[in-house]
Structures are given as C-alpha cells and as structure tokens.
Amino acid sequence: MSEAKRSVTTRSAKLQIGLWFALALAVVSCGTEYTPKPKGYNRIDLPAQTYQPLIAQHPYSFEYSSHAKVRPDSSRIAQPHWLHIIYPTLGADVQLTYKNIQGSDKILNDLVEDARKLTGKHQIKAYSIEETEVKTPTGDMASVFELEGEVPSQFQFYVTDSTKHFLRGALYFRTATQNDSLAPVIEFIKRDVIHMLNTLKWQEGK
C-alpha cells in the first residue's frame, strides 16, 4: 500500500473512532438527569459580641460594639449629635439621628410620624414589616421595626423619653450582597442594637 493511501486510511479510521465516541457521549448525556446545585454563600465568621461605652459628649450615652467605630454624620443634612456606628469588617452602618423634642407633643408626634414614613418607604420591596414596642430598663418607650425582603435597611428603631429626647436608628449595608446571605450578620447587629437600647441613658444638660 502506498504511503498516501495508508495516510488516508489512517485518517478515515480516526474519524470513525471520533464519531463513535461523540455518539456514545451524546447517548450517555441524554440519559443523565441534571440536578441544579444549591445556591452557596460565602462563609461569614462573626466575632464574639463585646461592648464599649460611647465616650463623646452627646445628649445620650450607650454601649456599642467593640468591633464598630463611631463617626459623626458628615452629610449635607447632618445635624448635631447625628452619628454613624460603622462595622468595617461587616460592611454595615447603623445611622443615628437625634432631635430635641423641647417638651412639645406636636414635635414628638411629627418625629414619630416621620420615623414611620421612612420605614414605610421600604414597603415596595419588603414582604414583611414587623413592629415591636418595648420599654427600656430606664422606662423609655422604643419601637423596633424588622423588615424582610431585598430592602436597603433591614432593621430600624426609635426611642424617646416623650419629653425631651428622640433618637432614631437604621441599619444599612454598604454591599450588594443579598439579604439571605447577610442574615447571620443582620441578627448579630440586631443584638448589638438591643444592647444599645438597654444601656441607653439621656445626658441632661447636653
């Protein structure tokens, strides 16, 4: 057999083997069921919850997470004693705003209404907003709002002594991660906020 003819025969044999292999692979593939893998999330290691006192001079004091940093609100609309409690490693930010009620029932009612409106703005994306009223150890009334769904703020609250002080807070995340994967972090910071409310004291004369 000539060298050219032997080369053609070899290529033909290789082609037939390749076709049979592709056919066998297609048959096996058709008979295999595809099972989608469950959605995975990055593991989030949370530190032990420890606390430290708020040192700066404000009309209020409380204990906040040792893993957080306090920064004054530097936004254009910021007012005195507005703060950010920032969790650098968790991408979270608890934003605090403070108002002096000045002994006015109207101011208090307006502030409560504004707080509810700000929470209500998330109704479009939230499929659940649960409000809980609690009394702090010092006798102040607080309302806590827990929001479920793909909302920018998952936890909000306000607390007041009904005569002079009104403090509102909202939790935000500086990340696009879905709330399902953030659930452990949200619960972690909720406990921090509850501790903050339980240790909250108003500083008269501030």
Strand content: 25-35%
Low-confidence stretches: 2-15, 17-41
Count the E strands: 11
The count of helical stretches stands at 3
**What about the largest sheet?**
7 strands, antiparallel
What is the CA-based Rg, rounded? 30 Å
Could you report the average pLDDT, rounded to the nearest whole number? 80
Structural class: alpha+beta
Q: Report how far apart the termini are.
A: 106 Å
Widest β-sheet, arrangement of strands: 4-5-6-10-9-8-7
Helix proportion of residues, in percent? 25-40%
What form results from the Cα inertia axes? globular
Write the element-wise H/E pattern from the N-terminal end onward: HEEEEEEHEEEEHE
Keywords, please?
alpha+beta; seven-stranded antiparallel beta sheet; 3 helices; 11 strands; 206 residues; two-stranded antiparallel ribbon; disordered N terminus
How would you describe this protein?
The chain has three helices and eleven strands. It starts with a helix and ends with a strand. Strand 9 (153-160) and strand 10 (165-173) form a beta hairpin. A seven-stranded antiparallel sheet has the order 4-5-6-10-9-8-7, sandwiched between helices. A two-stranded antiparallel sheet has the order 1-3. The model is unreliable at 2-15 and 17-41 (pLDDT under 50). It has helices spanning 3-30, 105-120, 179-198; strands at residues 51-53, 60-61, 63-65, 69-72, 83-87, 92-100, 126-135, 141-149, 153-160, 165-173, 201-202. With 206 residues, the protein is of the alpha+beta class. Helix content is 31%, strand content 31%.
Short recap of the structure:
A seven-stranded antiparallel sheet has the order 4-5-6-10-9-8-7, sandwiched between helices. A two-stranded antiparallel ribbon has the order 1-3. A two-stranded antiparallel ribbon has the order 2-11. Helices cover 31% and strands 31% of the residues.
